[in-house]
Amino acid sequence: MWLEYAFPNDEAEAERLDMQHAMQSHLLGDRLFWAPITETPQRVLDLGTGTGIWAIDFADTFPSADVVGTDLSSIQPTWVPPNCRFEIDDAEADWTWPEDHFDYIHNRNFVCAIRDWPALIQKTYQHLVPGGWVEWHEKHPEFSSDDNSLPPDSALVEWSRKFFEASVTFGADVDSPRHLKRIMEETGFVDVEEHILKLPVGSWPREPRLKRCGLFEMVNMTQGIQALTVMLFTRCLNMTPEEVELFLMSVRKDVKNKSIHSYYNFYVVFGRKPPLPS
């Protein structure tokens, strides 16, 4: 097991993360969150903030909120709203904030980054105020099609299989989004909701919003798939860099194939810490 982040940390990756922000917000109906939080949140935590774009947008939208974004990497801008700040921190390390502190905790895209989800969700429970909400937005990159247009022996299906296998070896199983609702309920959260959205790859959907999301994800899968793949496949599957690059050529070909109507699931899961008795 390697105690490190599985993906790169450079300008190209920062641009990819900002593009993912645009795509995922659009997938959610041009919204930053779905949890029914109050109109005047006070203390907000954005775990794994990345470039900080979600935290900045949230701070602009809610001037009442004191928004802190945390990440292992210091890639956030210095020009930010006065009610937003960033800290270098590991979400799986001991938290230094007081318990019963945050009104709302948000995370997005912790795929292949967390090794102990029950422990992390327990931390969010302890550090939320009674009645506070936590919300997860997570990809489950198992590709499917509803019209059998995705051949079972396609490179895209094979990439998905290899990615899941590598994530287990890495110690951060990407199957985790399927278990978030159960873990939250076992931790003690109430009013837990799980929404599973189809995230298309390519421009094949007829619905305009999904078509735009599919175009975003096609760019992500063609331009960003190397960043998502090389370290995991070379370290965890013992593939050579040359083997990975050759394989990714076939994956990109599938992604661009207009006859393949592929998608994967995007999980939106939120719940609240039980409020104090009235």
TrEMBL record:
Domain of life: Eukaryota
Listed GO MF terms: methyltransferase activity
Pfam families membership: Methyltransf_23
Name by which UniProt lists this protein: Methyltransferase domain-containing protein
Gene3D superfamilies for the chain: Vaccinia Virus protein VP39
